[in-house]
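Input sequence (1146 aa), recorded before submission:
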Amino acid sequence: MDILFAQIQSDLRSNDALRQAGALLQALQQSAAGRDVSPLSKCACDEILASPASAVCKKLALDLIRSTRLPPDHWDTACRGLLSDFSFPDPEVTAAALPLLCSVPSWRLPRLLSDCANHIMASLDSPSPSLRMAATETLGCLLARDDLVALCASNPSLRSKADSWWDQITRNALSASDPVSKVAFESLSRLFREFGSKRMSRLAGDKLVDTEDSMAIRSAWVASAVELLWKKRTFYMARSLLLPTEGFKACVFPLVYAAKTMASGAIDTLKKLSSVKGPPAPTGDLGAEKVVGVSDVVSHFVPFLGGSLDPALVFEVGINLLSLADVPGGKPEWASASITAILTLWDRQEFSSARESIVRAVVTNLHLLDLHMQVSLFKRLLLMVRNLRAESDRMHALACICRTALCVDLFAKESVRRGQKPLPGTDIASLFEDARIKEDLNTVSSKSLFREELVASLVESCFQLSLPLPQQRDTGTESRVIGALAYGTGYGALNWTESALEVVEVCRPCVKWDCEGRTYAIDCYLKLLVRLCHIYDTRGGVKKVKDGASQDQILYETRLQSLQRLLVKDLREVNTPRICARLVWSISEHLDLNGLDPLLADDPEDPLNIIITNIHKVLFSTDSSSMASNRLQDVQAVLLCAQRLGSRHPRAVQLLTKELEDFRNGGLADSVNKHQCRLILQIMKYITSHPESRWAGVGETKGDYPFSHHKLTVQYSEASAAQDRKLEGLVHTAIQELWRPDPSELTLLLTKGIDSTLLKMPPSACTLTGSSDPCYVEAYHLADSTDGRITLHLKVLNMTELELNRVDIRVGLSGALHFMDGSPQAVRQLHHLVSQDPVLCSVTVSVSHFERCALWLQVLFYPFHGSGGAGDYGDGDYAEDDYSQVMRQKQTLRPEMGEPVVLRCLPYKIPLTELLLAHKCSPVEYFRLWPSLPAIVEYSGAYTYEGSGFKATAALQSGAPPFLSGLKSLSSKPFHQVCSHILRTVAGFQLCYAAKTWYGSFVGMMIFGASEVSRNVDFGDETTTMMCKFIVRASDASITKEIGADLQGWLDDLTDGGVEYMAEDEVKIAAAEKLRISMERIALLKAAKPKSQPPKDEDKEDHEEEEEAKEPSTLSKLTVEEAEHRALQAAVLQEWHMLRKEKATK
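Predicted structure, token format:
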């Protein structure tokens, strides 16, 4: 291998272009085989990039450099070669060298861009098409990066140059060269997508927080490009017609984005954002010109929906035109043409790789169509969604379809109420009457989960409709949906029940399903049924007109009563005791027993007889399978049903008495069930003898459904329970994202303006050096949980009066951190550090697992570097990936470098909380998971707080108890507060938090707090010490081990140093000391009590009788109010006494 590398290096050093190209190809082959080619890349950097070479060799050398990592010195060599290539007479060579700009590290970019700014501008406007295309493509990728935007925020001259570069890129879209025009449109698309989606760029490996300046810079670039595209839209559209298919596809998004930004008025907000620190930008007006301009853009692209044979082009045009249908002045015809063209791709079985994208595009924009087309497409979309493979895509599409069904149904009914002609097929039953869907719903056993997903999505959509609708906006994708729902419900509180009643009628067959132990979909259905029965009070029968009921209410109550009777008959076909018990509870709790026909008391079809028969079936069931029954819960449910049925109807008492006696005397009942049966029988006996008190054993309905698909902890590993939890998570996520999505930062900025508080500032930096050190270093870090990376950003400041020609920053790692290339340390070389001029650099590392970790820095600066000659380091330079060369560096340094001064900095510790993510869960789920977490660590902490004074008063006014002041920083940590219980009277609390690590492990934390009275003070003084008990449980023992290794460090991470760790021995000693002091005080009080005088002998017996009669009682005769009043009086008198004493002393 050494011989091969030597041959390649000798070929690279030759002046023969053919031999150099062959050597570079061989080096690329070795790199692709996984071999270390860093010596070859260094040679290529010196012999190809920094020297005159052909364009082909420049491109191959650039590919070779991208496959490895260069040390800083060689980056300087490569950058000097790029500068020399700008003046090379052959533009092809310059075009081949320009892509090097995208590979240059962030710390080297500012100086390089400032050196070659004029050359870059000349390349963008060069007469050579290849050079112009290379410059446009390179800058389009480079200027969209977040690290470059941050550089522009701190460098005004670089920002002005970047503004002019973007203007030239926008003008290059009109270039006569098709490749240049295509690349310019692609660069504009990249800029718009970066700004619109707020997606962090991963090209440089840096994750930067958008500051106010960077937001203003991006807004200025976007606004400038949009205005130019809009102003010359006729020329750009004419130029796009001359492009080939691939080029035309690239121009669709920029033109549509510009039209939408102008028509929606977002351009005014962009101008305001871009001039945050300057004068206010003039606001535009939405006039006829913008409506006509949008229509021109649509008319330009519509012919390609049906006339193009390229599926990708049809899809691109259709997706973009859908966004224009929702702007002011948009028409449903635009959306219908786009959706029809996209669905044609589905029918032609073309563009099969984008099946999920096609369905998502159609269902997301379904609300833009008119009512007739929505109804006509509904059944077809159901079948398309059924065939989707990805669960997340299928659930999102189902959520959109279910919301559309409710919207169509409510809108059509409200239109009929307002006197319009009814439109057939708009009710829920008609929308879901497809033969395949009916077959799914009526089949008892099925291996497909689609029917469960459909029922759950429909029911959860009904519950979302029962909540207050989001605030309607003037524009936006969701405005039409919210408007239609508000129109359909008439802003009424109960109008949603009309569609919900149709949903429970359509989904009625689900109670007969055999889902192999899964119950989530059936529980959703029964929960909605119980809610409707409670709202319409079906227990009291159908209301009458004379009682104030409307005709619609009478109709709905009659339909609900009929549905209940059908469900009673379906009890015979229910497959499992678990579902049977839940259905019995749902029906019997709300059934109108007084409306039963007494003449049918002996009829087996009587609802009461069927219910009691099924109660018998559940009580005497011997099926022990956990998939079919949960006997403990099932028996409890039917016993409660028996008690309430017997309390409401005398005939139920007669039928249930025998059943309960048989069950009580049988061998299937345990001791608890026997006692419960005895209690129920006594209640029934009492009600029978006191008919006027028949409601003594039952209360009013609450509308709650007490059952859940969640199992006990010991049953947590069941496959059916895991599938239920997975389905619940998918459904809830899809419904929440659709109905009440969390708006992005850009959306909030565009809706609320620049006064939004969501503009993030960089985290506070910590100093790593001392005040008298010659170099000042401060650092902050940014974490990216998606990629598992942490980026450390450094600012180095030369505090001496000399200019330092070279400064090395060495970064070492400890813990779970490692560099991307596997090297043991990283080196950043900084050159020409002027006094008091800050220089920025960054290091990105990845985190392999949850562990406490740190970055260790050394600063090596050379005060006499360059004083003896040119900086030629030869073989003494060290690389990041070769630690042995670091030691050899000390021996092979040239005399002109001088002896380095080594400055060791403080370690930069990464808080453990940075490796956590907040995990939202309900209290029920949290306390269900808590006992099953195997790893646990407990510790105590203490902090002081101000119980009185200005801070305490301010805390009370803000609603936060002053005794929680030590834990206030927890609100900014990645923990989700599940629940809290606070006792303000005694200054105690319990807080529960949930989180997950980056790697999926669950972490739960409980904090118990109790106040401690300060020592050596009189009664009535403020309590200022809070003792906290922290309990952390995790699903992985390594997590608690890492936390327990440094408890004070963990507390500092949690509370920012607000809580001090207390060892258990100290806590026990303190508790024993308090107990001893209390016992001594009690003993002193007893000793100070005067002894009673002994009575005389003759009256001894009389005194003993009087003492027995006057013996004090432990029971106070005071009421609670009187005792509290006296305690308050004593406290006020004590406070007054202390104030008087202090005044007298003064």
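Checked by second reader. Residues 782-866+896-910 form a domain with the Immunoglobulin-like fold (CATH 2.60.40.10).
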